Every structure is written in C-alpha cells, then in structure tokens.
Amino acid sequence: MASPSPVQEPVLKLTKQEFLEALSKPDPELPEADALDEGEEVTPDTLRIVFTV
Amino acid sequence: MYTVLPFSEDGFVGSCTHPKLSENACRQNAHTRYFIEYLRAIGCKTIVVEQDYVDRDYLVDFTAYYARCFFDYDRKCKRLHFFSGDFAAGDLEALLDGSMSPMPERFGKYLGFIVVKPLPVRFFGRTCLVTYPTDGGRRFPSLRRYDVHLAGEPLSVESLAFQEQDRDVAACATAAIWSALHKTAKEFGFRIPTPSEITRMVDESSSTSQRNIPNNGLTVEQIRHAIKKTGLEAEIFSVPNLAALKTHIYAYHAFGLPVILGYGLETNQGELLGAHAVTVAGMNLDTKGAAPTLTAQRIIKLYLHDDQAGPFSRATFGAGETLETQFPDPHGPVLAKPRKVPGQQPSYTVIVPVYPKIRISVTEAIDYLKDLLKFFSRLQFGGIEWDVRLISNTEYKKQIPTTTTAREVIRRVRTAQLPRFMWLLRGTTQRGLLFDLLLDATSIRDAELHVHRVFYDEAVRSHVWNNILADKSVQDRLMQSTHERFAKAILAVFEPDKPTAPANSDAVIIA
User: Fold this and answer.
1) CB contact, 8 Å: B471 with chain A?
2) CA-CA distance, B186 to B193, in Å (whole number)?
3) What is the pLDDT of residue B165?
4) pLDDT of residue B331
5) Alpha-carbon span B333 to B327, nearest angstrom
6) How many residue contacts between A and B have a Cβ separation below 8 Å?
7) Where are the beta strands (DSSP E) in B23-70?
8) CA separation for the pair B42, B438 (Å, rounded)
C-alpha cells in the first residue's frame, strides 16, 4: 500500500552492540499511538447502551 | 405482472405508491429522496415494477405482527428492478414471451432491486443495489451475490442487503444486525434471520424492561445475544478515538466481515438525538497520500447501511473525534460522536459477528504489532506501513503476489499447513513488501500465536539475521526485554528458511 518509489538499498547501519544497548533502554514511544489504542474494557455499563434512534 | 418505465423522480415515486401510501407521503420520505439520488449516481435508466412479490422477510414480519392488527395489511409487496439500459415495455414483453432471449444488451447492467412493503410508513424493505464504482480508494469487501429471477430470466447483483427501520417489529440495531448477518451468516453457513426473528431472539431477561414488539431499541447486550442465537459469536470493542476506530474496523472489514458500529448522534444545532447503530458496508482509502504506520489510517470515509439514511451512505472522517453522516436532518449534517459510558472516556461501540472458531481478536494482533514496532524502532528501521487484518487460509494462499515473489517462497506458502483463520501483519516499505507475519486466529489467548512468516525482502532479512539476531547472546537479551512469545515471533520472522522437501512429499513447512 506504500506509495511506489525507486527501489532503494535497505538502510541498516546499526551494529549488534548498538542494538543491545537499545534493548536495555526503556520502551520507545510508539508511532500513531492513538491508532494502537486497544480501547476501554467492555463493562456491564457498555452492554447497557441502548440504540434507540 | 410487470410494468416498465423510464427512471425519473416521478417514475420512482409512482412505482412505490400503493393503496396505503400516497404519492405525496412517498415524495416527502427521506429514503425516497436518498434512493432517487443514489439511483441517479449508479446510472439507472429504466425501472421494472414486479407486482405481487412475496418477500420472505416481510412475510415473516407480517405473520408475527401485521396479520394480527385490526386494520388490513396486504401480505404481498412490489419489487422494483433497476437497469442501466434504455428499453420499453415491448422489449420486456418480448423477453417474457420467449421471442427475445437471452436478455439483449440494450437492457444494460442489472443494478439491483428494492422491495416496497404495503405499509403506510417505513415501506422500503429488502434492498440490494450495486455500489458506487470501486475505482479510486473505494472498497466494498463485504458484498455477496444475490441471485434474482425476473420471470425466469436469471439476474444477479453484488451487494449487501439493506432495509429501512421498521419501528414496529425492529429497531435500528435490528436492521444493522440483519444487514451484517446477510454476509456473515451466509458466509459461514448459518441461517439469516428476518428482522422480527432477530427482535424475538433478544433475551427478554436482559437489562431493558421494554417490550420486544413494538420495538424501541436494543442494548449492546441484546445485540450480542441475538448474534449468539444465530450460532455466531460477537466481538465487542469500546473504542475511544477515530484512529483506533479505523484500526478495529479495517482489521475485520478488509476480511469481508460487516461491522456493526454504535455511536451518539448530534445535530449541527448541538441537539443530542440518542444512540444509533449502523452497519459498515464499505470504506474509502486514501491510496495516494504519504504512507501511514497503519494501512487502516488511510480510511477517509465509511459507507454505512444506515437504516435512517440509506444503503452505502457516507460517513466522513473530519477534524476532531466525530464523523459527518448522511443521517437526514433539515438543519444540516448530523455528527456521529463517541458515547459516554460511566467511569470511562466516551467511546464508539464496535460489534463484529464472527465465526466461533475465530477466537483471537484484533486486540492480540495489536499487541504483536506493538512489539514489532518497538523492535524496528530499536533497529532504527523506519518507514514501514503495517497492514493488520484477519485473513483465511484460502484467501492468503490466493493473494500471494506471484509476479514479485520468488517461486520457492510461493511454493512454501501454498504447501504450508495453516489454520483456517489468521491475523495477517504485513509490513511494506518503499522497496515493496517486507514480510508477512501470520498469527493463528483460532488459537487460545496468551499462547504463542505465530504460525508462519513470509519474508519478501531477502536483503533486509539476511542483513538483520547475520549481523544482529543470529548471535545467541542477542537472542537471549531479546527474550529478556520483551514477552517470550513476541521475542520468539520476531526471531521466527528473521530466521533463514529451512530447506524444503521436494514437491511430491507430504512435507509441512511452519517457519
């Protein structure tokens, strides 16, 4: 689905050591975090919503 | 008995009227106006009116309710057929008496039908019309084929059935369930209930004390109960923002499942109208804009079966957390908004009828995606667009791109033993497809779900594996830094393929 563009070489400059260091750091911030929101818990109040219109 | 007339506003209104429905009442009906515009948009030129049509859905509703009313209601309907060609009564006569067969080209394309019920109000019954053209970003994955016989002449239309809300035997949620089941129940071999049957399926011991017929509305609990009574299961999500709403809808709808969507309605005067339920019957994706992290975020419009507006009515994503709908209101557009639930932030309600074997929901797939995103972030490898959706074994094997994929990879996919339903997490970069990770959607929660992977970009796979992940100490560190099942899935993605057995063996390849 990504827009087509000229083929590029993969940009992967990270070394093993740098990756290990990255693993020891706190979780990175996720892009588009809203889109990954798993939502609110479905509760008895959710189940009581009545569709009347 | 058939009548042929050219399509026009007067022609359509005249076709709908019957002894209990005046021309004036029909013309003022919001659905009438919607249908006239819609039929124009899909290129209707000619209407064929089929009198005395026996419609199963209405007949069941008739026996359940209307037959027992004091006033007489007819049990037969009219069915209006729509064509894109210009023809006259004589042409249809020639078709009916067999002097002209098969149907000549001048009839054009069959655009579908509308059943008109013999009721004074809410008279539009089962409606199956073609969609807007699917060019551009429009997608209608939940259509199915409806076979029609016009005096023995076989016709068919690809659609998803719609009908106007009948407040006596059904409510908006009933209409939404009915439309959704027209695809899902049919797809998985279950019987499709009529609106009054759905209303009667509702658990009378549930939270509302209201009577079933006449019906004033259904709760989420009652919707879930009605879906379970058909033999399916209901996945229910309470989604607080439009971005997450897109993710949830896309995950199921791209697979072809209609999604029931509940929201609050507010007029542009700020008046709250109440909660409303519709069926998502299509979506429009921005295919030209910059690549988002999730393909689902490309959705710019939904096409809704809104029983108050019409089939495939548009809901446009705008600024803020609202959708602009085509719900009829003289003062302008009506907005769909998240509903307030005690103790929680306002949310949209998403209900998906699914086959019972689909036990793993999109929530689990999102969990895996989050770990993939963290992994690629630590790898400093960006620019990946993720397509997350449910897919069947058959569909996955059918869609594998044959022109850009190595033959050995195609063979591995087509010979792999896979579960019937899977969650597909597909990464794409500017170079093209990166890889697919497939999760078992029929498994149990918290289990290891990854069942297969296909890596399309071998240069990336071998670089990451050879330079980073092949080292046992890195693998151990990865296992410690994240949940074991996610770490195992990531390692499975990048591991080199094992040698395959010859084509005539019974080998099963699970990467």
Assistant:
1) yes
2) 11
3) 79
4) 87
5) 7
6) 191
7) 46-53
8) 38
**What one-character DSSP code corresponds to residue B278?**
E
User: Which residue carries 């009839």 as its tokens?
Assistant: B107
Residue of A nearest to B264 (CA): A51
pLDDT for the residue numbered A7: 46
Closest CA to B297 of B341, B250, B257: B250
> What average pLDDT does the segment B327-336 reach?
92
Output the six-digit token pair for B3.
């009548």
**Chain B residues within 8 A of A51 when measuring between CB atoms:** 171-173, 176, 217-219, 223, 262, 274-277
**What are the phi and psi torsion angles at B316 (to 5°)?**
-105, 130
Q: State the Cα–Cα distance between residues B139 and B250, nearest whole angstrom.
A: 11
Residue found under tokens 């209006």 = B80
Q: pLDDT, tens digit, for every residue of B231-275?
A: 999 999 999 999 999 999 999 999 999 999 999 999 988 899 999
- The residues, ordered by sequence, that sit 6+ positions from B289 with a Cβ below 8 Å of its Cβ are B298
The model's pLDDT over A5-42, given as tens digits with 9 standing for 90+, comes to 444 555 678 899 999 999 999 999 998 899 999 888 99
User: In chain B, which residues have their Cβ closer than 8 Å to the Cβ of A47?
Assistant: 207, 219-221, 224, 236
- Give the start-to-end residue ranges of the domains of chain B: 2-160, 195-354, 362-494
Yes or no: say if B137 and B128 are a contact pair by the CB < 8 Å rule.
no
Report which DSSP code applies to B466: I
Task: Give CA–CA dist B106/B496, Å, rounded.
Answer: 59
* A45/B295 touch (CB, cutoff 8 Å), yes or no: no
Collapsed DSSP state (helix, strand, coil) of residue B25: helix
Answer whether B171's CB lies under 8 Å from A52's CB.
Answer: yes
- Is B277 in contact with A51 (Cβ distance < 8 A)? yes
Backbone angles phi, psi at B193, to 5 degrees: -75, 160
- Which of chain A's residues have a Cβ under 8 Å away from the Cβ of B295? 1
Domain B195-354 CATH (choose: 1.10.287, 3.90.70, 1.10.10, 3.40.50): 3.90.70
CA distance A28 to chain B (A): 6
Q: Which two tokens stand for residue B147?
A: 């076979």
Cα–Cα dist B392/B135, whole Å: 25
